[in-house]
Amino acid sequence: MSFPAIDVGTKARERKVILIDDDPLQLRIREAVLRGAGFDVATTTSADDALVTLQAESAETFGAIVTDHLMPNVSGVEFVRRVRRLNATVPVIVVSGMAEAESEYEGLNIVFRQKPCRPAELIALVQQVCE
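Above: the chain's sequence. Below: its structure in token form.
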């Protein structure tokens, strides 16, 4: 899989991104896109596992979190609330096929994008929040 070369800058290349999506295909695609752009990417298919990773490595280790909205056990909204208890400022990007879900994140300081989120847009979003 090849993506256009986009300069994500030295600072962003040094930052980690954690991707959370219960759909393994979506997860692999986003991982390939961000790795191809030079990001260090950790992935998980559950919000619970992501929270364990964020606690173990410290949320400050990550330059951005990219999560799905609809997930089993812990919704995207509940996941973000838990992340905010760990770290109020780590950038969170929520990607969802449900435009109406954006209002559920009010006051949680997130960037919301509706699917499909094109590769260049995802890279630009992550680059922007990592700066």
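The chain is about 40% helix and 20% strand.
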